[in-house]
Amino acid sequence: MKQLVALFMLLVLSTASAAAPVRIKDIADFDGVRGNDLVGYGLVVGLDGTGDSFRNAPFTEVMLAGLLERLGINVTDDALRSKNVAAVVVTAALPPFARSGSRIDVSVSAIGDAQSLLGGTLVMTPLKAADGDIYAVAQGPIISGGVAVAGEASRVVEGVPTGGKILGGARVEREVAFDFSQIQNIRIALRNADFTTAARIEDIINRDFSHRIAVMQDSGTIIVEFRKLGQINPARVLGRIENLKIEPEDRAKVVIDHKAGTIVMGEHVRISHVAVSQGNLTLRVSEAPQASQPNPFADGETVTLPRSFAELREEPGIGFAEVGGEASLSDLIDGLNALGVPPRGMIDILKSIHAAGALHADLIVE
């Protein structure tokens, strides 16, 4: 019963959120106002014997030798036998309009056979973008999200000790060239393309500015022409636009998560006239072998005789539950609850209704 109540709350919450007005910046992105992905390859030092083994990760040895040579220390391969160093890949996201000297968070992931990065420190690592230029430099102590404990015959791992983060661990060295004040127009890109939502955004922008500055280009794009307002600051215009509220439209969807037994339905889910019945058929087969022994003092041997029992049982049916034509979301819930089945049974029923062509929504099974 608790599972049915929790399921019902999920459905109600999804319905309420679909009908509530939301800000434009929560459902759309502005063309040009975007981040850039950065990646680098570096070394983590200071590990407590949990780093790479140079036999299985020779690239770590090469990087360590190169680092020491740049610091003025010449070493041979035989002298490098440390288990306190690990090779890692460093990733980060350069936010839009990030200025030189500002700091960003980075993620660190081991690529060798290191067992843990706990307690390690990332050595200065340049981070490059897709164009090959260096935009930031990362360095600092790693905060690992896991721990590993090993003994002579067993090992316990909690979380992912071979990955971690450095909060504010990278300093921006190069800015992305973008002069926002010189743009003539900007595109608003919807995250979920829909003609009705795009039309509502166009209407509310034009109504709020009392000028026709917004034009819907397609179901996912609205073009805003700033210069029709005269000499203004485009940044202030976008700040005003992104806080305008509309009621977004979306396709009717039913999302099913088989692993968790979760069902989420949208507000616009409709179902045609249909009758549903559910029953359980149980087949049980058991083995009870029996031993046969010879009489006392008689020649012979003990043998095992197979003994099987098979039972086919069908539980009493609960009849048909009828759902009226063009039923709403609440009608559908009432109809399914009338069957008295658990959420996983509801998943099978919804799939069958969809297969019969009576469920008017996109069925997404994850």
UniProtKB/TrEMBL annotation:
One of its GO terms (molecular function) is structural molecule activity. Residues 1-18 form the signal peptide. InterPro entries: Flag_FlgI (IPR001782). Its main location: other. It is found in: Bacterial flagellum basal body. It comes from the Bacteria. One of its GO terms (biological process) is bacterial-type flagellum-dependent cell motility. GO terms for cellular component: bacterial-type flagellum basal body, distal rod, P ring; outer membrane-bounded periplasmic space. Keywords: Bacterial flagellum, Cell projection, Cilium, Flagellum, Periplasm, Signal. Assembles around the rod to form the L-ring and probably protects the motor/basal body from shearing forces during rotation. PANTHER family: FLAGELLAR P-RING PERIPLASMIC PROTEIN FLGI, FLAGELLAR P-RING PROTEIN. Belongs to the FlgI family. The basal body constitutes a major portion of the flagellar organelle and consists of four rings (L,P,S, and M) mounted on a central rod. This is Flagellar P-ring protein. It comes from Paracoccus saliphilus. The gene is flgI.
